[in-house]
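Let us practice reading a record.
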Amino acid sequence: MIGRLRGEIVSKHPPQLMLEVNGVGYELEAPMSTFYDLPPVGEQVTLVTHLTVREDAQLLYGFLREEDRALFRNLLKVNGVGARMALAILSGMDARQFALCVRQEDVTALTRLPGIGKKTAQRLVMELRDRVDAVPTGSPVGVASSPSTGGSEGSALVDAIGALTALGYKPADANRMARAADDGTKTSEEIIRAALKAVNTP
């Protein structure tokens, strides 16, 4: 089991990134709650990881915070919730925000996340009510040394649209959300953050 990696960030294309560890490149998927705080490409970072082994693939997921990995693992235990939906949840809100929604039984807030209908939101509240208090909290295991930087303006928008689509939004909605959030100066992570914030704001 791969539980932790420390290495150099080779590439970032949310929700995918590549980390080089001792000459080996590891492809990972990560929620936006991790991407927002990652250092730039070329910098060192430490991630806690979760490995999923399927018949057709071995998938590695990375997180800056132990609390996010713990929530991810709890989400996978909920009937009908897979890794893609768990990443979408952690991209729309962090572990503390999710715990607050569950405690307050805020089904409406949960249904604003992509792929989460009312029945799924109710199931999340019911099945995770007793687990969210056990989620560990703390600072990132690999603190970003400097703000994330993006590529050109055009590529940032394209990356943001791709990331929103990968998180479960329909392509047309992802395009609309990203363009509405883009002012021509933002990195892809900043566009995604603004787009998700707009969706999750009542």
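A brief commentary: The longest strand covers residues 4-13.
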